[in-house]
Amino acid sequence: MFRTCLQRLVRRHSLFFLQPKQRFHHGKLQVSAEVASALKNGQPVVALESTIISHGMPYPQNLRTAQQVEQIIRKNQCVPATIAIIKGIVHVGLEEKQLEQLAHPSFKCTKTSRRDLPYVLAQNLNGGTTVSATMLLAHKAGIPIFVTGGIGGVHRGAESTMDISSDLTELGRTPVTVISAGVKSILDIGRTLEFLETQGVCVASFGPTTDFPAFFTPKSGFHAPMNVKDPLEAAQLIAAHHKLALESGVLIGVPLSDRFASLGKTIETAIKMAVAEAEDQSIRGKDITPFILQRVAELTKGVSLESNIALILNNANVGSQIALELSNLQQQTRETTHTVLNSEIKEKVVVIGGALHDFYVRLEDEYKLETDGRMIPGSCSQSFGGVGFNIANCLGKLGVPTSFVSAVGQDPTGTQFLKSYNHIDLSGVMQIPGRLTASYCGFLQPHGHLIFGVGNSEILESISVQQIHSMENYIKNAPLVCVDANLNSDAILTLCELCQKHGVPVWFEPTDHVKASKFFLWPVGSMFTYISPNESEFRAIHHAITGTTTESLLDADLSQKENVDAILKQYATMCRDLISFVPVIILTLGKLGVLIAHCDKTGTHLPLKGSKIFKRPEDMVAKFFPVYGLENVLSVSGSGDCFAAGLLAGILHGHPLDLSIKLGLMTANLSLLSTETVPDTIKPVCCTPLHIAQSYKAPPPRMIDL
Length: 706
Known about the structure:
The protein is an alpha/beta fold. The chain has a domain at 349-703: Ribokinase (UDP-N-acetylmuramoyl-L-alanine:D-glutamate ligase, 3-Layer(aba) Sandwich), CATH 3.40.1190. It has 26 helices and 26 strands. The two termini are 65 Å apart.
């Protein structure tokens, strides 16, 4: 229960934010107010073990060292989190009195590794956590970096005794970075490194060489597979490890400074003597390391203790510098992506519209169709499509939680559709007995442009008022609802009334100029928050509302700037005619680009649930976004739907307007460059600002003056 509850609270790839003094599992894990606040605010935190204090050093050196370590970490702008168990409660971050209590010889304390945790907690005992237990608990609390003295390893003669430290297996299964002075020289360092490789642990030495340290000596005679030269390189290694979501840890070996390294031979001699004495006295298991360290301190008259303290302080200095650099990298990532934590989409967007079985015929050569019965060379393909479904499908591929509402036939095609997509919620799709799933056949020129299409979408008229009402719980919680023009008028009116009731904006996606205009001949059109027509659909909507007729303006020579300026000004003026009717107009102008008009002069974001809606024509602003990268087009089918989905995803993630439009244009491009309507190249990573900036280098947008 303890493990399960904690696991639910860990967020992979990011720090886990805890509220100050918040407890878990009836007080079995308590995070100090200082550590909780640091984690919540994205400050770097460094985990520290407590066995060094409780079992590794004599009093009062243990207390002074623990205090010095925390001081060094704070000096490097990090927060220390010493982990220990006091009366059966795991404490992540100790107060000064608790640190003093832990260090005092009168304090009875169990040396606690992973295996001991259940017993120590169940019996309400005190525990000094070893490397393995500290790694586990640090990970549960969301702390990615842990500083210690040295780790355990494979003991000499392990081929017969099987004496291998649990530190190594913990490194193989817990994604925490351990900063240490390497492996104690009393161990079999070569076999330890081999074992770590088997466990998939990334091992690196810190400094200019790959020489792997051996606790008191900077060079063990063995080499790490790699090295990191400074704290930034180390942080970059850890950040890459996090991005890969590896379940194993990272070990960084930090060599002791040369001043103490000169004493290494003296200490090594004492270690060999202590190991022999331990063997003679049959000291085994977890008692052997404390015995050897104490005996070495006696034999070297305190020199080893001085070196031990020095290496721990050195590790704390290096480890906290790495933690600070890692925090800076994570902050930069948050600033450039801000999609995982700050703009996480918790509720499903609802998309209601057509689901069709699409067939496409692509001609091999430019050809003027003749009705003489000949067979024309070309290729055929099929997939599921429809405006509403394409948008829902694209949103799902972008990682946006999406619920799709539609109707399909109780036929093999409809059954296959319901089984084919698990990245969107299809529970709102009705399967209607005795009806055929809607179908469409489009004929394309070799360059992908549509010649004409033939379709049967009568079943979509069966999306009923009752079906819309059955989705009210989805609708009222949605940040936005998108509907295409394939629905009947009563269903769309019911949908808009429910959305108004719950304050949810409606995005209306026209499917052709005939269907686009009919909804604006009666009041339902004024209930839309967004419309996203192409040029012909926009002219039809403008005519339905104003009664005026305009000819297509895109036939002019678009290579002439004055023609483009005139077109944009004309369409922006037409948008102002409609803006009191529909507050956000997204007009796609083919190879020219996208014009967006809205009434929030001071706002950089488009409205979602709970946003204030502006409709005053005098406040309207119009902005034009040129397109980029239209070479090598394979198919135009679905590009408009992918644009709408990409723009929607940007709005839902809380991206600014410019970034959201760029995301829409980028997803449209991915569709244009593929024969698939919604290609698999559209992925969640597309939504990150850094990816957009790197992948879609569009010309800058410009305001249209009216």
